[in-house]
Amino acid sequence: MGPTKAIVKGHALYEAVGGKLIRDGFTSQREIEDYVNHHYLVLPVVDNAGRPWLLDGKLIYCLRGVQYETVDDRRVHLARCPDCGGMGIRSDEFTVESDCIRCTACGHEFDARLEMMET
Ligand SMILES: [Zn+2]
């Protein structure tokens, strides 16, 4: 089992699946992130502007810094856009040979293998 996927609503943290309250009464986003970092929790991935990634209307979580999953534990092949931090989707329907990733937010295309080598 990975960390518990959580969502933020107002000043409270809830479990993303089932909606159970984890903790209420936070006063800032920083406080929420601090709490998440010290517990076995993970928050949805957001881009540089703070907008959450959505795939088919579902929030995306990043586990162990590398593995992306939807809220219902489906592993997805995504990559973070180096420009805007938006969600990059593999365009493998057309280009099976390459590992081309296209950002859904700004349209930037990049190679996922390159990004992995740089980090
Ligand atoms: Zn982008």
TrEMBL record:
<protein>
    <submittedName>
        <fullName>Uncharacterized protein</fullName>
    </submittedName>
</protein>
